[in-house]
Protein backbone atom coordinates (compact mmCIF):
# COMPACT_ATOMS: atom_id res chain seq x y z
CA UNK A 1 0.00 0.00 0.00
CA UNK A 2 2.77 2.43 0.89
CA UNK A 3 4.64 1.69 -2.36
CA UNK A 4 1.38 2.34 -4.26
CA UNK A 5 1.05 5.70 -2.54
CA UNK A 6 4.59 6.66 -3.47
CA UNK A 7 3.96 5.84 -7.15
CA UNK A 8 0.70 7.81 -7.30
CA UNK A 9 1.85 10.99 -5.57
CA UNK A 10 0.08 13.24 -8.13
CA UNK A 11 -3.38 12.51 -6.72
CA UNK A 12 -2.17 11.41 -3.29
CA UNK A 13 -1.39 14.99 -2.25
CA UNK A 14 -4.83 16.19 -3.37
CA UNK A 15 -6.91 13.35 -1.93
CA UNK A 16 -5.16 13.23 1.44
CA UNK A 17 -5.35 17.00 1.78
CA UNK A 18 -9.08 17.09 1.05
CA UNK A 19 -9.73 14.15 3.38
CA UNK A 20 -7.80 15.89 6.14
CA UNK A 21 -9.97 19.03 6.07
CA UNK A 22 -12.38 17.73 8.70
CA UNK A 23 -10.11 15.20 10.42
CA UNK A 24 -8.93 15.73 13.96
CA UNK A 25 -6.35 13.18 15.17
CA UNK A 26 -6.85 11.19 18.34
CA UNK A 27 -3.43 11.98 19.76
CA UNK A 28 -0.30 14.02 19.25
CA UNK A 29 2.94 12.73 17.72
CA UNK A 30 6.30 14.39 17.32
CA UNK A 31 7.34 15.22 13.77
CA UNK A 32 11.07 15.29 14.33
CA UNK A 33 13.62 18.04 14.52
CA UNK A 34 14.09 20.38 11.57
CA UNK A 35 16.08 23.45 10.76
CA UNK A 36 14.14 26.50 9.67
CA UNK A 37 15.30 29.44 7.68
CA UNK A 38 14.48 33.14 7.64
CA UNK A 39 11.01 33.17 9.21
CA UNK A 40 10.82 32.55 12.95
CA UNK A 41 7.17 31.43 13.03
CA UNK A 42 6.61 29.97 9.55
CA UNK A 43 7.70 26.93 7.54
CA UNK A 44 6.91 28.62 4.24
CA UNK A 45 5.00 31.22 2.27
CA UNK A 46 2.67 30.87 -0.73
CA UNK A 47 1.70 34.12 -2.43
CA UNK A 48 0.52 36.33 0.44
CA UNK A 49 -0.20 33.40 2.80
CA UNK A 50 2.31 32.34 5.49
CA UNK A 51 2.28 28.69 6.64
CA UNK A 52 2.80 28.70 10.41
CA UNK A 53 4.87 26.14 12.31
CA UNK A 54 1.85 25.48 14.54
CA UNK A 55 -0.35 24.70 11.55
CA UNK A 56 2.35 22.52 10.03
CA UNK A 57 2.74 20.49 13.24
CA UNK A 58 -1.06 20.10 13.54
CA UNK A 59 -1.37 18.95 9.92
CA UNK A 60 1.51 16.48 10.25
CA UNK A 61 -0.05 15.08 13.42
CA UNK A 62 -3.44 14.58 11.73
CA UNK A 63 -1.85 12.85 8.74
CA UNK A 64 0.20 10.59 11.01
CA UNK A 65 -2.89 9.56 12.98
CA UNK A 66 -4.86 8.93 9.79
CA UNK A 67 -2.16 6.62 8.39
CA UNK A 68 -1.72 4.92 11.77
CA UNK A 69 -5.45 4.10 11.86
CA UNK A 70 -5.28 2.71 8.33
CA UNK A 71 -2.10 0.65 8.57
CA UNK A 72 -2.15 -0.26 12.27
CA UNK A 73 1.03 -1.50 13.95
CA UNK A 74 3.02 -1.61 10.71
CA UNK A 75 2.97 2.21 10.54
CA UNK A 76 5.59 4.06 12.59
CA UNK A 77 8.01 6.99 12.34
CA UNK A 78 10.25 5.02 9.98
CA UNK A 79 7.35 4.33 7.61
CA UNK A 80 6.25 7.94 7.88
CA UNK A 81 9.74 9.03 6.83
CA UNK A 82 9.78 6.45 4.03
CA UNK A 83 6.48 7.75 2.70
CA UNK A 84 7.68 11.36 2.97
CA UNK A 85 4.93 12.40 5.37
CA UNK A 86 6.71 15.65 6.27
CA UNK A 87 6.77 16.63 2.60
CA UNK A 88 3.12 15.60 2.14
CA UNK A 89 2.12 17.76 5.13
CA UNK A 90 3.93 20.76 3.63
CA UNK A 91 2.46 20.15 0.16
CA UNK A 92 -1.04 19.82 1.62
CA UNK A 93 -0.66 23.20 3.29
CA UNK A 94 0.85 24.69 0.13
CA UNK A 95 -2.22 23.44 -1.80
CA UNK A 96 -4.50 25.00 0.77
CA UNK A 97 -2.55 28.26 0.68
CA UNK A 98 -2.85 28.43 -3.12
CA UNK A 99 -6.61 28.16 -2.82
CA UNK A 100 -6.69 30.64 0.08
CA UNK A 101 -4.97 33.21 -2.13
CA UNK A 102 -7.68 32.69 -4.73
CA UNK A 103 -10.46 32.78 -2.09
CA UNK A 104 -9.10 36.09 -0.78
CA UNK A 105 -9.08 37.52 -4.31
CA UNK A 106 -12.76 36.59 -4.71
CA UNK A 107 -13.60 38.08 -1.30
CA UNK A 108 -14.70 34.81 0.31
CA UNK A 109 -14.96 35.21 4.10
CA UNK A 110 -15.84 32.98 7.05
CA UNK A 111 -17.58 34.51 10.07
CA UNK A 112 -16.89 33.77 13.74
CA UNK A 113 -20.37 32.24 13.90
CA UNK A 114 -19.51 29.76 11.15
CA UNK A 115 -16.31 28.75 12.94
CA UNK A 116 -18.23 28.28 16.22
CA UNK A 117 -20.83 26.15 14.44
CA UNK A 118 -18.08 23.96 12.99
CA UNK A 119 -16.51 23.43 16.42
CA UNK A 120 -19.89 22.58 17.91
CA UNK A 121 -20.39 19.92 15.21
CA UNK A 122 -17.44 17.82 16.43
CA UNK A 123 -18.69 15.08 18.76
CA UNK A 124 -15.19 15.03 20.23
CA UNK A 125 -15.94 18.29 22.05
CA UNK A 126 -19.49 17.47 23.13
CA UNK A 127 -20.51 16.66 26.70
CA UNK A 128 -23.20 14.23 27.81
CA UNK A 129 -25.99 16.63 26.85
CA UNK A 130 -24.74 16.87 23.25
CA UNK A 131 -23.56 20.48 23.52
CA UNK A 132 -19.97 21.67 23.44
CA UNK A 133 -18.07 21.21 26.70
CA UNK A 134 -15.67 24.15 27.01
CA UNK A 135 -13.35 22.26 29.37
CA UNK A 136 -12.92 19.38 26.92
CA UNK A 137 -12.37 21.84 24.06
CA UNK A 138 -9.78 23.85 26.05
CA UNK A 139 -7.88 20.72 27.12
CA UNK A 140 -7.90 19.36 23.56
CA UNK A 141 -6.38 22.53 22.13
CA UNK A 142 -3.84 22.75 24.97
CA UNK A 143 -2.82 19.11 24.47
CA UNK A 144 -1.84 20.01 20.87
CA UNK A 145 0.41 22.82 22.09
CA UNK A 146 -1.89 25.41 20.53
CA UNK A 147 -4.03 28.36 21.56
CA UNK A 148 -7.73 28.51 20.77
CA UNK A 149 -6.98 31.24 18.24
CA UNK A 150 -4.46 28.95 16.47
CA UNK A 151 -7.02 26.16 16.19
CA UNK A 152 -9.86 28.43 15.14
CA UNK A 153 -7.67 30.10 12.49
CA UNK A 154 -6.93 26.65 11.04
CA UNK A 155 -10.65 25.85 10.92
CA UNK A 156 -11.42 29.26 9.39
CA UNK A 157 -8.96 28.60 6.54
CA UNK A 158 -10.40 25.14 5.92
CA UNK A 159 -13.95 26.47 5.83
CA UNK A 160 -12.89 29.22 3.41
CA UNK A 161 -11.38 26.62 1.08
CA UNK A 162 -14.49 24.44 1.43
CA UNK A 163 -16.61 27.39 0.26
CA UNK A 164 -14.31 27.91 -2.72
CA UNK A 165 -14.41 24.22 -3.72
CA UNK A 166 -18.22 24.28 -3.87
CA UNK A 167 -17.82 26.55 -6.91
CA UNK A 168 -16.25 23.66 -8.86
CA UNK A 169 -18.66 21.03 -7.56
CA UNK A 170 -19.87 19.96 -11.01
CA UNK A 171 -22.40 17.18 -11.61
CA UNK A 172 -21.23 14.25 -13.78
CA UNK A 173 -22.49 14.14 -17.38
CA UNK A 174 -24.34 11.09 -18.71
CA UNK A 175 -21.44 10.35 -21.07
CA UNK A 176 -18.95 10.38 -18.17
CA UNK A 177 -21.14 8.00 -16.18
CA UNK A 178 -21.37 5.63 -19.16
CA UNK A 179 -17.58 5.57 -19.58
CA UNK A 180 -17.10 4.78 -15.88
CA UNK A 181 -19.90 2.23 -15.97
CA UNK A 182 -18.35 0.35 -18.90
CA UNK A 183 -15.06 0.02 -17.00
CA UNK A 184 -16.78 -1.48 -13.97
CA UNK A 185 -19.11 -3.69 -16.03
CA UNK A 186 -16.50 -5.61 -18.04
CA UNK A 187 -16.41 -9.23 -16.89
CA UNK A 188 -13.76 -11.90 -17.52
CA UNK A 189 -13.85 -15.67 -17.13
CA UNK A 190 -10.42 -17.06 -16.31
CA UNK A 191 -8.57 -20.33 -16.39
CA UNK A 192 -5.74 -20.15 -13.89
CA UNK A 193 -3.22 -21.93 -11.72
CA UNK A 194 -1.50 -20.75 -8.55
CA UNK A 195 2.08 -21.99 -8.31
CA UNK A 196 3.56 -22.18 -4.81
CA UNK A 197 6.71 -23.54 -3.19
CA UNK A 198 4.98 -26.96 -3.08
CA UNK A 199 5.23 -27.10 -6.87
CA UNK A 200 8.99 -26.62 -6.99
CA UNK A 201 12.09 -28.08 -5.38
CA UNK A 202 15.07 -25.95 -4.42
CA UNK A 203 18.26 -27.42 -2.96
CA UNK A 204 20.90 -25.16 -1.45
CA UNK A 205 24.37 -26.23 -0.34
CA UNK A 206 26.48 -24.55 2.35
CA UNK A 207 28.96 -23.54 -0.34
CA UNK A 208 26.21 -21.71 -2.26
CA UNK A 209 25.11 -19.93 0.91
CA UNK A 210 28.70 -18.90 1.67
CA UNK A 211 29.24 -17.65 -1.87
CA UNK A 212 25.94 -15.68 -1.68
CA UNK A 213 26.99 -14.21 1.69
CA UNK A 214 30.41 -13.19 0.30
CA UNK A 215 28.73 -11.23 -2.49
CA UNK A 216 26.14 -9.64 -0.20
CA UNK A 217 27.79 -9.55 3.24
CA UNK A 218 27.40 -5.77 3.60
CA UNK A 219 23.64 -6.43 3.84
CA UNK A 220 24.13 -8.54 6.97
CA UNK A 221 25.10 -6.32 9.87
CA UNK A 222 24.47 -6.44 13.58
CA UNK A 223 21.83 -4.08 14.99
CA UNK A 224 22.94 -0.79 16.56
CA UNK A 225 23.06 -1.26 20.34
CA UNK A 226 22.74 1.28 23.14
CA UNK A 227 24.16 1.08 26.64
CA UNK A 228 21.55 2.88 28.72
CA UNK A 229 21.04 3.77 32.37
CA UNK A 230 17.35 3.79 33.25
CA UNK A 231 15.80 5.50 36.27
CA UNK A 232 12.20 4.47 36.94
CA UNK A 233 9.70 6.62 38.82
CA UNK A 234 6.86 4.27 39.80
CA UNK A 235 3.23 5.00 40.65
CA UNK A 236 2.66 1.78 42.64
CA UNK A 237 1.90 3.49 45.94
CA UNK A 238 -0.16 6.36 44.51
CA UNK A 239 -3.84 6.31 45.47
CA UNK A 240 -6.65 7.99 43.53
CA UNK A 241 -10.28 8.64 44.43
CA UNK A 242 -13.30 8.04 42.24
CA UNK A 243 -14.02 11.78 42.24
CA UNK A 244 -10.52 12.49 40.91
CA UNK A 245 -11.01 9.92 38.17
CA UNK A 246 -14.37 11.35 37.06
CA UNK A 247 -13.04 14.90 37.12
CA UNK A 248 -10.07 13.92 34.95
CA UNK A 249 -12.26 11.93 32.54
CA UNK A 250 -14.77 14.77 32.12
CA UNK A 251 -11.97 17.17 31.22
CA UNK A 252 -10.07 14.74 28.96
CA UNK A 253 -12.67 12.35 27.54
CA UNK A 254 -11.34 12.94 24.00
CA UNK A 255 -8.23 10.93 24.95
CA UNK A 256 -10.23 7.74 25.55
CA UNK A 257 -11.47 6.41 22.23
CA UNK A 258 -12.13 2.98 20.71
CA UNK A 259 -10.66 1.57 17.48
CA UNK A 260 -13.17 3.58 15.44
CA UNK A 261 -12.30 6.85 17.16
CA UNK A 262 -15.53 6.96 19.20
CA UNK A 263 -15.20 8.30 22.76
CA UNK A 264 -15.68 5.51 25.33
CA UNK A 265 -17.80 6.04 28.44
CA UNK A 266 -16.25 6.41 31.89
CA UNK A 267 -16.69 2.79 32.99
CA UNK A 268 -15.14 1.44 29.78
CA UNK A 269 -12.21 3.86 30.16
CA UNK A 270 -11.69 3.50 33.91
CA UNK A 271 -8.45 1.46 33.86
CA UNK A 272 -6.88 3.89 31.38
CA UNK A 273 -8.13 6.86 33.43
CA UNK A 274 -6.58 5.43 36.62
CA UNK A 275 -3.26 5.07 34.83
CA UNK A 276 -3.46 8.62 33.44
CA UNK A 277 -4.30 10.17 36.83
CA UNK A 278 -1.49 8.28 38.56
CA UNK A 279 0.95 9.46 35.91
CA UNK A 280 -0.26 13.02 36.40
CA UNK A 281 0.42 12.76 40.13
CA UNK A 282 4.01 11.49 39.75
CA UNK A 283 4.97 13.81 36.89
CA UNK A 284 6.71 16.33 39.20
CA UNK A 285 8.46 13.52 41.10
CA UNK A 286 9.84 12.19 37.80
CA UNK A 287 11.24 15.64 36.92
CA UNK A 288 12.88 15.90 40.37
CA UNK A 289 14.29 12.38 40.02
CA UNK A 290 15.85 13.34 36.68
CA UNK A 291 17.51 16.39 38.24
CA UNK A 292 18.99 14.32 41.08
CA UNK A 293 19.99 11.55 38.64
CA UNK A 294 21.79 14.06 36.42
CA UNK A 295 23.68 15.41 39.47
CA UNK A 296 24.65 11.84 40.51
CA UNK A 297 22.65 12.17 43.75
CA UNK A 298 20.77 8.97 42.96
CA UNK A 299 21.77 5.90 40.95
CA UNK A 300 20.05 4.31 37.98
CA UNK A 301 17.44 1.65 38.63
CA UNK A 302 19.12 -0.50 35.98
CA UNK A 303 21.97 -0.35 33.46
CA UNK A 304 21.18 -2.28 30.32
CA UNK A 305 22.32 -2.75 26.71
CA UNK A 306 19.46 -2.83 24.20
CA UNK A 307 19.13 -3.29 20.47
CA UNK A 308 17.74 -0.26 18.67
CA UNK A 309 13.93 -0.21 18.98
CA UNK A 310 13.86 -2.91 21.66
CA UNK A 311 10.28 -3.12 22.94
CA UNK A 312 11.33 -2.42 26.52
CA UNK A 313 11.10 1.26 25.56
CA UNK A 314 8.44 2.99 23.45
CA UNK A 315 8.95 4.18 19.88
CA UNK A 316 8.69 7.77 21.08
CA UNK A 317 11.56 7.22 23.54
CA UNK A 318 13.65 5.52 20.88
CA UNK A 319 13.11 8.45 18.51
CA UNK A 320 14.42 10.76 21.26
CA UNK A 321 17.42 8.47 21.83
CA UNK A 322 18.24 8.39 18.11
CA UNK A 323 18.19 12.19 17.88
CA UNK A 324 20.36 12.67 21.02
CA UNK A 325 24.10 12.36 21.72
CA UNK A 326 26.02 10.08 24.05
CA UNK A 327 25.88 11.36 27.62
CA UNK A 328 22.42 12.95 27.25
CA UNK A 329 19.82 12.70 30.02
CA UNK A 330 16.41 12.55 28.36
CA UNK A 331 13.33 14.08 29.94
CA UNK A 332 11.09 11.55 31.75
CA UNK A 333 8.71 9.67 29.49
CA UNK A 334 5.69 7.59 30.45
CA UNK A 335 5.65 3.83 29.98
CA UNK A 336 2.40 2.29 31.21
CA UNK A 337 2.03 3.41 34.85
CA UNK A 338 5.60 4.72 35.32
CA UNK A 339 8.03 7.36 34.09
CA UNK A 340 11.53 6.50 32.91
CA UNK A 341 14.52 8.82 32.64
CA UNK A 342 17.10 7.59 30.13
CA UNK A 343 20.82 8.35 30.27
CA UNK A 344 22.59 7.42 27.02
CA UNK A 345 25.91 5.82 27.96
CA UNK A 346 27.36 4.46 24.74
CA UNK A 347 26.22 3.82 21.18
CA UNK A 348 27.58 0.53 19.80
CA UNK A 349 27.73 0.85 16.02
CA UNK A 350 26.70 -2.01 13.67
CA UNK A 351 29.33 -4.31 12.22
CA UNK A 352 29.34 -6.85 9.40
CA UNK A 353 28.26 -10.26 10.70
CA UNK A 354 30.55 -13.26 10.39
CA UNK A 355 29.37 -16.06 8.11
CA UNK A 356 28.21 -18.14 11.08
CA UNK A 357 26.19 -15.22 12.45
CA UNK A 358 24.63 -14.43 9.06
CA UNK A 359 24.27 -17.99 7.76
CA UNK A 360 20.55 -18.50 8.44
CA UNK A 361 19.62 -15.02 7.20
CA UNK A 362 21.65 -15.46 4.01
CA UNK A 363 20.21 -18.95 3.47
CA UNK A 364 16.64 -17.63 3.76
CA UNK A 365 17.36 -14.84 1.26
CA UNK A 366 19.01 -17.23 -1.20
CA UNK A 367 16.11 -19.67 -0.80
CA UNK A 368 13.64 -16.89 -1.62
CA UNK A 369 15.65 -15.77 -4.66
CA UNK A 370 16.05 -19.29 -6.08
CA UNK A 371 12.40 -20.15 -5.35
CA UNK A 372 11.21 -17.08 -7.27
CA UNK A 373 13.43 -18.03 -10.22
CA UNK A 374 11.98 -21.56 -10.24
CA UNK A 375 8.40 -20.30 -9.88
CA UNK A 376 8.89 -17.99 -12.86
CA UNK A 377 10.30 -20.87 -14.94
CA UNK A 378 7.21 -22.96 -14.20
CA UNK A 379 4.96 -19.98 -14.97
CA UNK A 380 6.72 -19.40 -18.28
CA UNK A 381 6.15 -23.04 -19.31
CA UNK A 382 2.46 -22.84 -18.34
CA UNK A 383 1.98 -19.75 -20.51
CA UNK A 384 3.33 -21.75 -23.43
CA UNK A 385 0.75 -24.48 -22.80
CA UNK A 386 -2.31 -23.00 -21.07
CA UNK A 387 -4.19 -26.31 -21.28
CA UNK A 388 -2.45 -27.20 -18.00
CA UNK A 389 -4.23 -24.38 -16.14
CA UNK A 390 -6.52 -26.49 -13.94
CA UNK A 391 -8.73 -23.90 -12.16
CA UNK A 392 -11.54 -21.81 -13.60
CA UNK A 393 -13.70 -19.00 -12.25
CA UNK A 394 -17.35 -20.06 -11.95
CA UNK A 395 -18.67 -16.60 -12.73
CA UNK A 396 -17.34 -13.58 -14.56
CA UNK A 397 -15.01 -11.55 -12.36
CA UNK A 398 -15.08 -7.75 -12.53
CA UNK A 399 -13.91 -4.60 -10.79
CA UNK A 400 -17.44 -3.88 -9.61
CA UNK A 401 -17.79 -6.82 -7.22
CA UNK A 402 -15.51 -8.77 -4.92
CA UNK A 403 -14.54 -12.39 -5.66
CA UNK A 404 -12.17 -14.78 -3.91
CA UNK A 405 -10.01 -16.81 -6.28
CA UNK A 406 -9.21 -20.04 -4.43
CA UNK A 407 -6.71 -20.80 -3.00
CA UNK A 408 -5.75 -17.11 -2.71
CA UNK A 409 -6.53 -14.95 0.31
CA UNK A 410 -9.08 -12.12 -0.08
CA UNK A 411 -6.22 -9.58 -0.20
CA UNK A 412 -4.35 -11.56 -2.87
CA UNK A 413 -7.57 -12.04 -4.87
CA UNK A 414 -8.25 -8.30 -4.88
CA UNK A 415 -4.68 -7.59 -6.03
CA UNK A 416 -4.90 -10.20 -8.82
CA UNK A 417 -8.26 -8.95 -10.12
CA UNK A 418 -6.97 -5.37 -10.20
CA UNK A 419 -3.87 -6.43 -12.16
CA UNK A 420 -5.83 -8.65 -14.56
CA UNK A 421 -7.97 -5.67 -15.62
CA UNK A 422 -4.92 -3.39 -15.81
CA UNK A 423 -3.30 -5.80 -18.31
CA UNK A 424 -4.29 -5.87 -21.99
CA UNK A 425 -2.82 -9.36 -22.58
CA UNK A 426 -4.98 -12.45 -22.88
CA UNK A 427 -2.64 -14.47 -20.67
CA UNK A 428 0.03 -13.49 -18.16
CA UNK A 429 1.71 -14.34 -14.86
CA UNK A 430 1.29 -12.22 -11.72
CA UNK A 431 3.93 -12.44 -8.98
CA UNK A 432 2.57 -12.41 -5.43
CA UNK A 433 4.58 -12.54 -2.19
CA UNK A 434 5.16 -16.31 -2.12
CA UNK A 435 3.44 -17.55 -5.25
CA UNK A 436 2.71 -16.85 -8.91
CA UNK A 437 -0.79 -16.56 -10.41
CA UNK A 438 -0.83 -17.73 -14.06
CA UNK A 439 -4.03 -17.07 -16.03
CA UNK A 440 -5.69 -16.96 -19.43
CA UNK A 441 -8.87 -14.99 -20.25
CA UNK A 442 -11.30 -17.51 -21.77
CA UNK A 443 -14.35 -15.28 -22.19
CA UNK A 444 -15.27 -11.60 -21.80
CA UNK A 445 -18.59 -9.76 -21.80
CA UNK A 446 -20.43 -6.67 -20.53
CA UNK A 447 -22.27 -7.58 -17.33
CA UNK A 448 -25.79 -6.55 -16.37
CA UNK A 449 -26.41 -3.62 -14.00
CA UNK A 450 -26.07 -4.47 -10.34
CA UNK A 451 -26.40 -2.84 -6.96
CA UNK A 452 -22.64 -2.30 -6.64
CA UNK A 453 -23.00 0.60 -9.10
CA UNK A 454 -25.61 2.41 -7.03
CA UNK A 455 -22.98 4.95 -5.94
CA UNK A 456 -21.71 5.54 -9.48
CA UNK A 457 -22.89 9.18 -9.58
CA UNK A 458 -20.96 9.98 -6.40
CA UNK A 459 -17.84 8.11 -7.54
CA UNK A 460 -17.75 9.90 -10.91
CA UNK A 461 -18.40 13.21 -9.16
CA UNK A 462 -15.44 12.64 -6.83
CA UNK A 463 -13.15 11.71 -9.72
CA UNK A 464 -14.21 14.76 -11.75
CA UNK A 465 -14.02 17.12 -8.79
CA UNK A 466 -10.56 15.78 -7.88
CA UNK A 467 -9.32 16.27 -11.46
CA UNK A 468 -10.67 19.83 -11.60
CA UNK A 469 -9.17 20.65 -8.20
CA UNK A 470 -5.80 19.21 -9.27
CA UNK A 471 -5.74 21.31 -12.44
CA UNK A 472 -6.82 24.44 -10.56
CA UNK A 473 -4.01 23.98 -8.02
CA UNK A 474 -1.53 23.35 -10.84
CA UNK A 475 -2.63 26.61 -12.49
CA UNK A 476 -2.44 28.57 -9.23
CA UNK A 477 1.07 27.25 -8.52
CA UNK A 478 2.31 29.11 -11.60
CA UNK A 479 0.62 32.30 -10.38
CA UNK A 480 1.71 32.32 -6.72
CA UNK A 481 5.29 31.66 -5.62
CA UNK A 482 5.80 28.76 -3.19
CA UNK A 483 8.63 29.27 -0.71
CA UNK A 484 9.87 26.80 1.91
CA UNK A 485 11.84 27.96 4.95
CA UNK A 486 12.90 24.39 5.77
CA UNK A 487 16.65 24.17 5.27
CA UNK A 488 18.19 21.50 3.02
CA UNK A 489 14.72 20.48 1.77
CA UNK A 490 13.45 21.85 -1.52
CA UNK A 491 9.82 21.05 -0.90
CA UNK A 492 7.64 21.98 -3.83
CA UNK A 493 4.43 20.49 -5.18
CA UNK A 494 5.22 17.69 -7.61
CA UNK A 495 3.20 17.54 -10.87
> So what's the CATH class of the largest domain?
Mainly Alpha
- Along the chain, the helix and strand elements come as HHEEHHHHHHHEHEHHEHEEHEHEEHE
Mean pLDDT: 84
| Overall domain count | 3
Model regions low in confidence, pLDDT < 50 over at least 5 residues? 1-23, 30-38, 488-495
Please describe what this structure looks like:
By secondary structure, this protein is of the alpha+beta class. It folds into three domains: 195 residues, Triger factor/SurA peptide-binding fold; 125 residues, no CATH class; 126 residues, Roll (Chitinase A, domain 3). The chain has 16 helices and eleven strands. The strands form three sheets. Strands 8-3-10-9 form a four-stranded antiparallel beta sheet. A four-stranded antiparallel beta sheet has the order 5-4-7-6. Strand 9 and strand 10 form a beta hairpin.
Using brief descriptors, characterize the structure shown.
Triger factor/SurA peptide-binding fold, 4-stranded antiparallel β-sheet, 3 domains, Chitinase A, domain 3, alpha+beta, disordered C terminus, 495 residues
Brief digest:
The protein is of the alpha+beta class and 495 residues long. The protein contains 16 helices and 11 strands.
Give the SSE layout.
Layout: H1 2-7, H2 9-20, E1 42-46, E2 49-52, H3 53-71, H4 77-83, H5 85-105, H6 112-121, H7 134-143, H8 148-165, H9 174-185, E3 186-195, H10 206-216, E4 225-233, H11 242-252, H12 266-294, E5 302-307, H13 315-322, E6 333-335, E7 338-348, H14 355-384, E8 391-392, H15 410-422, E9 427-431, E10 436-446, H16 456-479, E11 482-484
Antiparallel strand pairs: 1-2, 1-11, 3-8, 3-10, 4-5, 4-7, 6-7, 9-10
Helix pairs in contact: 2-5, 2-16, 3-5, 5-8, 6-8, 10-14, 11-12
